[in-house]
């Protein structure tokens, strides 16, 4: 198989259904899907078991003890069977060529980074109901959507790559050996933000990787939900500490040093 597509989820079965439906429409299908659940929801387990999916799918879970996304991501990395890993979230619907773009531009020691358009509530609900909807009226008129410029698939974008300032954890890919080389995600982060993207955005390049933009190539549609933002002060404080110590390989990751 060409890639492992690792999907971070927490309880939202309706959104995951829309995401998996979009995966079945991908132009590249030689992949495995790993549902990386930060919890052990009976509803999620039942859905994954019954969902009609044509390719290999694994469901990795852990006890729900608060935000431990990085821990289950590390478990999913080790369970993956492909050499190239694509990370998305369970509320991000994929353009049909999303996986194709991540595979087309893969290289050793390169991290591919895309962005996402944020859809409005009406469009998100229609997509989660399984309706076939045209995105064009929403893209041009915005109508409550944000980051609309990220919603256009532009094949010629490879000629004028829009740069990325930061990794987005829901739209990135890399060689398995590169993420393992820095010991995966740092499990000392126990709150959202910083730990699942900003942290490795620093550690991977410090270990010899280059971040390459896939904006307007690997296109992704983020389904609307109420923000559950947590103050990132504590995470940022810890991040600055490991930066100052130049701790490129985390101590509490895939391996527990």
Low-confidence blocks of residues: none
What's the alpha carbon Rg, rounded to whole Å? 17 Å
CATH architecture: Alpha-Beta Complex
Helicity, in percent? 25-40%
Q: Order of SSEs, N→C? A: EHEHEHEEHEEHHEHHEEH
Euclidean distance between termini CA atoms: 31 Å
* CATH homology group: Spore Coat Polysaccharide Biosynthesis Protein SpsA, Chain A
Please indicate the count of domains: 1
The helix/strand class is alpha/beta
Mean pLDDT: 93
- Overall CATH class: Alpha Beta
Q: CATH fold name, please?
A: Spore Coat Polysaccharide Biosynthesis Protein SpsA, Chain A
Please, how many helices? 9
Give a count of the beta strands, DSSP E runs of length 2 or more: 10
- Sequence of strands across the biggest β-sheet: 3-2-1-4-8-6-9
Q: What gross morphology would you assign? A: globular
**How much of the polypeptide forms β-strand, as a percent range?**
15-25%
Q: Summarize the biggest pleated sheet.
A: 7 strands, mixed
Please summarize what this structure is:
The chain is of the alpha/beta class and 257 residues long. 31% of the residues lie in helices and 18% in strands.
Provide an overview of this structure.
With 257 residues, the chain is of the alpha/beta class. It has a single domain (3-244), classed as Alpha-Beta Complex (Spore Coat Polysaccharide Biosynthesis Protein SpsA, Chain A), CATH 3.90.550. It is built from 9 helices and 10 strands. It has helices at residues 13-23, 42-50, 69-79, 98-104, 121-128, 136-141, 176-181, 198-206, 233-244; strands at 3-9, 31-37, 57-60, 84-89, 92-94, 110-113, 117-118, 171-175, 210-213, 220-222. Strands 3-2-1-4-8-6-9 form a 7-stranded mixed β-sheet, with helices on both faces. Helix 1 links the parallel strand 1 (3-9) and strand 2 (31-37). The radius of gyration is 17 Å and the shape is globular. The two termini are 31 Å apart. The model has no long low-confidence stretch (mean pLDDT 93).
């Amino acid at each position: 198989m060409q890639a492992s597509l690792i999907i971070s989820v927490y309880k939202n079965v309706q959104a995951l259904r829309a995401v998996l439906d979009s995966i079945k429409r991908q132009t590249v299908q030689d992949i495995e899907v790993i549902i990386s659940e930060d919890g052990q929801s009976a509803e999620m387990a039942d859905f994954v078991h019954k969902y009609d999916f044509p390719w290999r799918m694994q469901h990795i879970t852990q006890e729900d003890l608060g935000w431990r996304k990085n821990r289950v991501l590390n478990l999913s990395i080790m369970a993956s069977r492909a050499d190239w890993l694509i990370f998305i979230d369970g509320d991000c619907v994929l353009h049909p060529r999303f996986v194709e773009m991540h595979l087309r531009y893969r290289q050793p020691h390169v991290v591919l980074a895309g962005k996402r358009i944020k859809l409005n509530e009406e469009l998100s609900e229609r997509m989660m109901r399984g309706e076939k909807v045209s995105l064009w009226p929403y893209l041009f008129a915005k109508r409550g959507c944000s980051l609309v410029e990220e919603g256009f698939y532009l094949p010629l974008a490879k000629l004028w790559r829009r740069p990325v300032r930061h990794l987005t954890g829901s739209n990135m890919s890399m060689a398995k050996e590169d993420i393992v080389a820095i010991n995966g995600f740092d499990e000392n982060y126990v709150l959202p933000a910083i730990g699942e993207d900003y942290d490795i955005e620093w550690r991977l390049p410090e270990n010899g990787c280059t971040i390459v933009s896939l904006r307007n190539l690997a296109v992704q549609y983020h389904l609307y939900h109420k923000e559950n933002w947590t103050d990132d002060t504590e995470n940022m404080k810890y991040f600055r500490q490991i930066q100052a110590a130049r701790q490129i390989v985390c101590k509490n990751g895939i391996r527990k040093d």
